Amino acid sequence: MTKACIREREAYSRLSEDYRPKRPIVRNIILAFVVGGLICVVGQFFLDYLVSRKLAPTQAQAMTSSIMVFLGAFLTGIGVYDKLGRLAGMGAALPITGFANSVVSPAMEFKREGFVLGVSAKMFQVAGPVIVYGSLVSVLVSILRLYIFK
After folding, report:
1. How far is CA 129 from CA 18, 103, 121, 126, in A?
2. Could you give the CA distance from residue 5 to residue 123 in angstroms, rounded to a whole number?
3. In angstroms, what CA-CA distances link 117 with 14, 50, 99, 105, 126?
4. Most-buried pick from 23, 34, 102, 133 (CB within 10 A)?
């Protein structure tokens, strides 16, 4: 590139910077915190309820995770969770309900391509690497723990 072209590109960048909308960072952080916290409050409600019904704590935790995954998938299916994700960002993506959303969204998007090449092939497009690397790291940490902390 010539120097004139580079200067012109830099000038355009500076000019467009003035017209680019500013991101409301503080508002985004607060919304992520509040929505993520509310999702956790819902999960804690289910956990407390299940424990109060005399379910063993480990069973109640597993059941709570299942309920939260179901809620995330259900809300994605009716179109609510995507709006929540746009509003709250990582506050909606990080809890386990966000994992359900990352599985259900591609499945819904590609359902018109059929169940095998559409839904099944694309369902774990986002969540697949998380599952693979999460499993790999858990095995490696378990091996390290076995040999280091005998």
Report:
1. 39, 12, 14, 7
2. 45
3. 46, 39, 21, 15, 16
4. 102
pLDDT tens across 57-106, in order?
999 999 999 999 999 999 999 999 999 999 999 899 888 898 888 888 88
pTM summary value: 0.73
How many Cα atoms are found within 13 Å in the side-chain-facing hemisphere of 75?
Answer: 22
DSSP classification of residue 111: G
Tokens of 44: 């804690």
Residue 92: enclosing H or E segment and its boundaries? helix 90-93
Task: Give the three-class secondary structure for 76.
Answer: helix
Q: What is the Cα–Cα distance from 55 to 60, expressed in whole angstroms?
A: 6
Measured in residues, the chain has a length of 150
